[in-house]
Amino acid sequence: MKTKTFLAIIVFAGIIMFPPFIVYGHKQESETDKASSEKKTPEMEFKNEPAARALYEKMIETMRAAESLSYTSEFQWEARGEVLSNCTYTIWLKKPNYFRVETLSSKGDKGGTLVGDGNDLWIFWSGERPFFSSEDRESFEKTASNVYMKEPTPLARHSIGHKTGLLGAGMSSPVFDPSTFHGYTDSLQRYIDGVRSLGTEKVGNQECDVIEVSIMKGQRIWQFWLSRRDYLPRKLKEIVHVSYDIITTEQWSQVTINSEIPPDKFVWTPPEGWQQWRLPSAEERLLKPGQDAPDFELLAADGTKIKLSGYRGKVIWFYIWRAG
Predict the structure, then answer these.
(1) By residue range, what is the domain housing residue 110?
(2) Domain contains 150
(3) Which pTM does this prediction carry?
């Protein structure tokens, strides 16, 4: 009688979008950065401070009250002490539902551009688009250039931050969703359980109040350096606590409120011969019955490594969940 061996592999699926990796040097930490890097337990004690909470709400109120907003951000994403990617992006936002995001890689190469014309968003790239892990190489080669993406953007019900990871150039999701400007409410807002002050600090020529926002009892932390001049950030930091810390930092410059932005900034038309493209759907990516599963390697809870090919001929049970 044959017996089957069952292997349960438990996978943690976070909500982080991984762009193409670009590895560079490290930035020097400020005193506030060093203090926040101290070891914390996921469910750390976090005292909510009304004055700090009021500053956080004032930041959102200022963004939503503005008729236009633009800024340039130096973006960096790191984990385990290694810089995974960095880039520069510039964003223009205008009421009621217009936006544009342009990216530059750390080498100065132009990446993707995202344009919102009031009804739809358009994503296009200078040269080849990035390769995404959800597609195969053959289909990529056929659609690597002269393509664009298009999606509807219902007012206050779409997220710019969920799309910026498609731009390449080392870009991932920003710390704070720019669509807040248009009235969108980030899905993480409901899980905020405390806001506290970290004192004051100068960023460039701006005196800033530094606040820290706890999400899910500290599983995710946001830090904002809010200018006393306009209540908008000049520096932002996100720390996601998993088995290690995933850290995103941004430094804003050229922050401009209520200035005139030319209408053509929010218009884009596909050049002749370009084709609309989309990422493969979840159904399209599923393995077909009888098809060999691609090999992969995972880190087990005891620190050992598990390789799928090591269990060929046996039944594998995947238990996948999403959190944080």
Answers:
(1) 19-25+43-284
(2) yes
(3) 0.80
